[in-house]
Amino acid sequence: MSGTQWIIFFFVIQLLHGLATWKLYVKAGRKAWEAFVPVYNAVVLMKIINRPWWWTILLFLPIVNLIIFPVVWVETARSFGKNSSQDTFLAIILLGFYNFYLSYGAKDLKYRENRSLHPLTEFGDWVSSILFAVVAATIVHTYFIQPFVIPTSSLEKTLLVGDFLFVSKVNYGARTPQTTVAVPMIHDAVPGTTVPSYIKKPQLPYFRLPASEEIEHNDIVVFNWPVDTLVDINNPYGEVRYKPVDKKTNYVKRCVGLPGDSLSIKEGYVYINGKKNELPERAKLQFFYTVILKNNVSQEFLDQYGITEYTRVFQLKKSIFENEKIQEYIKANGINLTVVSDDGEMIGFKGNVSQDMYDKLKVGFSDKALNINLTEDLAAKIKSNPNVISLKKDLSTQPENDIFPRSPEYSWNKDEFGPIYIPQAGKTVDLNLEVLPLYKRIITAYEGNTVDVKGNQILINGEVANTYTFKQDYYWMMGDNRHNSQDARMWGYVPFDHVVGKPVFVWMSWDSNGKGFDKIRWNRLFTTVGGEGKPTSYFIPFLVILAGIFAFNKFRKRKKKTA
């Protein structure tokens, strides 16, 4: 819905509320006109049902109001003597229209000004406590702090798979929900299913609260994955569906490029405005390397260096690999292969070997070569091992089809990329057919225009355009795990309206490969995400404070009993 449509909708609701309740206002000793004045009518209604005025604010908070409105409908009925289970059921199921019955159909209706607000049963008390706990948690989750778990190794060494984070929404400004009807604190699907946890329409216009800071170079940022249309994020080839911005999958990456920057990637390193990007101390870049050993690869070798991410190196007889027909087959099918070893009899190679090629040629695996994911420090240590013949970084040399902007005009890959301009709100760029692939998604998907090409002309919203002015800021998000990260190199810019927040705290860390108590990474509990040097755990101070609070509460209860 547009802003105008929402304004019309708001005033229609206000009119319906006035028509449904003005007689109730009069019975409660108020003026009839008070039921028709927007916002003020809610403040007066809170007085009538003997609830605090600030409940009015909750009525205008998306998602939270889905809980508060039914409570207000029930409280209104009870304020006029309608306390039965049937009254409660009808007040909720009729979505507030039960007030029309109370005003125009109910007989002997009397206002109960001093009614008790305490639930009459233990079950009612339990329901009341649960409702307001959910309200409080939803407010915190939506506007202040949201829990998040790290699912992949794209920021390995800084954030580990299994880290449970608290993500602050205050730092970059909390977004008000755009999806108005959704299950509180549930993201895009009901847990354990692919059933949406929300209704797509109506949608509120985008709005963001003031921020306490701006995104800076190398900040770790949580954002909504711009190209997410997957029903099941774990099934990239499965069913797709439209998702509102605030219901797209949450991703976490490092922001290496800011609005207005010129960015390029050379040999896997990011350059900003021609200068190599210097990462903070905790960040450790990782690349895949091909290692060739004198002896066979062993588990002992992997354990010695803590290697957990690796792939096997393919192997084929040299006479078969170099066969003219085989080489023609490889080229015809677009199979990119890189030779990593040649002992005169066997060729070791890596690349996107198809299942058909694997089966037909009976491709095997090398016993002495491996592709391993390493930090640069660890690569230097392994290279000095006397069992290592060679260790070489696996940098891409050929164009890759899945690299942004996925256009034949741009022959880039994950290690050699750009330069590109990162759009800034209010800035204007020249527009032509050459640069259109870089900005087309921004112009259409993120900023709501249509783009058509007729000959050499570009038409935006049906009019010829030679320039374009950006409406919002954009960012470039990448993982430190450069060869194992689904990031902006694949899908491009991240709009500011997709930014969720800033990870600030690791409150729990779970190692699925550990055993027993070692499954918990104790040294990472209650550690900050930012900062220099190794993470410092504040778990012990937390336990001390928790014990202090518990002891104080116990002392206070004892004091009350003896008083």
UniProtKB/TrEMBL annotation:
<feature type="transmembrane region" description="Helical">
    <location>
        <begin position="126"/>
        <end position="145"/>
    </location>
</feature>
<protein>
    <recommendedName>
        <fullName>Signal peptidase I</fullName>
        <ecNumber>3.4.21.89</ecNumber>
    </recommendedName>
</protein>
<dbReference type="Pfam" id="PF10502">
    <property type="entry name" value="Peptidase_S26"/>
</dbReference>
<keyword id="KW-0645">Protease</keyword>
<dbReference type="InterPro" id="IPR019533">
    <property type="entry name" value="Peptidase_S26"/>
</dbReference>
<feature type="transmembrane region" description="Helical">
    <location>
        <begin position="538"/>
        <end position="555"/>
    </location>
</feature>
<dbReference type="InterPro" id="IPR036286">
    <property type="entry name" value="LexA/Signal_pep-like_sf"/>
</dbReference>
<dbReference type="InterPro" id="IPR043739">
    <property type="entry name" value="DUF5684"/>
</dbReference>
<keyword id="KW-0812">Transmembrane</keyword>
<dbReference type="GO" id="GO:0009003">
    <property type="term" value="F:signal peptidase activity"/>
</dbReference>
<comment type="similarity">
    <text>Belongs to the peptidase S26 family.</text>
</comment>
<feature type="transmembrane region" description="Helical">
    <location>
        <begin position="6"/>
        <end position="26"/>
    </location>
</feature>
<feature type="domain" description="Peptidase S26">
    <location>
        <begin position="125"/>
        <end position="281"/>
    </location>
</feature>
<keyword id="KW-1133">Transmembrane helix</keyword>
<dbReference type="InterPro" id="IPR000223">
    <property type="entry name" value="Pept_S26A_signal_pept_1"/>
</dbReference>
<keyword id="KW-0472">Membrane</keyword>
<feature type="transmembrane region" description="Helical">
    <location>
        <begin position="88"/>
        <end position="106"/>
    </location>
</feature>
<dbReference type="Pfam" id="PF18936">
    <property type="entry name" value="DUF5684"/>
</dbReference>
<keyword id="KW-0378">Hydrolase</keyword>
<feature type="transmembrane region" description="Helical">
    <location>
        <begin position="53"/>
        <end position="73"/>
    </location>
</feature>
<feature type="domain" description="Peptidase S26">
    <location>
        <begin position="470"/>
        <end position="508"/>
    </location>
</feature>
